[in-house]
Amino acid sequence: MNALPPARRVRVAIVGGGFSGAAVAWHLAQMHRQERISISVIEPRSFVGGGLAYSSEEPSYRVNVPAVRMSMAPDDPQHFARWLTGSGELERDTDAIWKNGDAYPRRRVFGRYVAEHLAPHLGSGTVRHVEGPATRVTREADGAGWTVHTPNARVAADIIVLAATHPQPAIPAALIHLSEAPGFIADPYAASALAGIGPEASVLIVGSGLTSADMVAELDRRGHRGRILTLSRRGLRSRSHPDVRGEPFGDFASTPATTALRLLENIRATLAAAHAANVNWQSVFDQLRLQGPALWSALAPPERARLVRRLRVFWDVHRFRIAPQVASVLDRRHAAGTFDTIAARLVASNDEDGSLAVSFQRRGQTRIETARFDAVINTTGPAHGQALQLNPALNSLAEAGLIRTDQYGLGIETSLDSRAVGGDGSAVTTLFVAGPLARGTFGELMGLPEVARHAQTVAAEIAKLRETLPSAEGADAAQAPVMI
């Protein structure tokens, strides 16, 4: 009897090595023997797993949810909490434990946890880290394969996973005249971004969400005592966690609302019921998050668009909470009169010999005010709608008609099985999207638990596809995925 030809390892290339990409790689490696799959993660940072969110070295940047709710393994919610207990990090950072016993470690610690769990697969060669940015992704003429281009290598693959990071915040048009000024910080998470801000400097932070709160906390840790003003269109600060965590409250999924207005009415009614039952509002939003996919799928596209346009800002500040350690800094600075948040729109700006003049109009007023600052920090949030234009790898796929922006401007349009939808409206069989860039299809896909679950789902879809690929038989099992 003739022996069967050796099966070539299916080659998967993951563009992006932050949490989304690392989680997909880890789940794939867990599902397959080394001789069956080869995974390349294209990531410019020196390690896989940190990404933009979890690679920062600043001590004030903490995870935004209790450690017991964070895990790479969705079916094992205590995965990270157990690792954290045995890591020694809590002994080195006693401020991580809040007064209710919940742990909010530094974000870089979570990045270390992800990297350590991926390390055995990197060591075995099942996962390869291709260090460098993906500059272009091309599809073979016969449609059977892909090549990811980086400055120093080309990565051949049978399957591509797009797990790119959020685009850097766009500079508001009214601040363009400050873009070259020494005191203007366009990328707040860049290395040493805050190094030039003196302890008495007056600071304007444009945006009042999670990143803005990070900036205030880190400036305070560095000894800054000057005036800090945060400005946003609504003037809404990110909320904090309750002193006592409760169970998710309410039921939005049994009879999901079919309009944005009806959903808002349901939320308000449930909040009233929670108040009457002495349940905190955070428990209501925890239930909304858990049932988010069902709620999103029940809305027709026009209602989804209305939800994003009218209610997203309110959802964000209640859903994406800040660690209580960070909230306490904001509260203390506000009480001391050195920190304030206003609702206003930017009008104009000018660099006048190192003094940054910014004009703005407060919400509900007609008068335009001008104030001068020593530093202006842009924290307006990721430019989700420009992801396909700003990321060269995504741009190359968009120009080839293989991906397109979803109709809500949140990221990349996908099918319900996470395959990218091309310009002709058809799903591309071997091109997947993992993480927040797919949230136009799935709704709630920004929080870590949801991203981890989605990564697991994408890995399972790839596992099913692997068995059907015609190229999986009869080739050299040792064929390398990276060509220099």
Number of helices: 15
Uncertain runs: 1-6, 471-481
C-alpha geometry: globular
Write down the overall mean pLDDT: 90
Count of strand segments:
17
As a whole number of angstroms, the C-alpha radius of gyration is 23 Å
Spatial order of strands in the largest sheet? 8-14-9-10-11-12-13
Largest sheet geometry: 7 strands, mixed
Separation of termini?
Answer: 40 Å
Q: How much of the residues is beta strand, in percent?
A: 15-25%
The secondary-structure class comes to alpha/beta
Query: Level of helix content?
Result: 25-40%
Explain what the structure shows.
There is one protein chain. This protein has helices spanning 19-31, 51-54, 79-87, 89-92, 107-124, 210-221, 260-276, 281-290, 292-298, 301-319, 324-336, 387-390, 392-399, 439-442, 448-466; strands at 10-15, 37-43, 127-131, 136-139, 146-149, 154-157, 159-162, 184-185, 203-206, 228-232, 339-352, 355-362, 368-373, 375-378, 419-421, 427-433, 482-483. With 484 residues, it is of the alpha/beta class. The strands form three sheets. It has a seven-stranded mixed sheet with strand order 8-14-9-10-11-12-13. It has a six-stranded mixed sheet with strand order 3-2-1-7-16-15. Strands 4-5-6-17 form a four-stranded antiparallel sheet. Strand 11 and strand 12 form a beta hairpin. Helix 1 packs parallel to helix 5, helix 1 (19-31) crosses helix 15 (448-466) and helix 6 packs across helix 11. The two termini are 40 Å apart. The model is unreliable at 1-6 and 471-481 (pLDDT under 50).
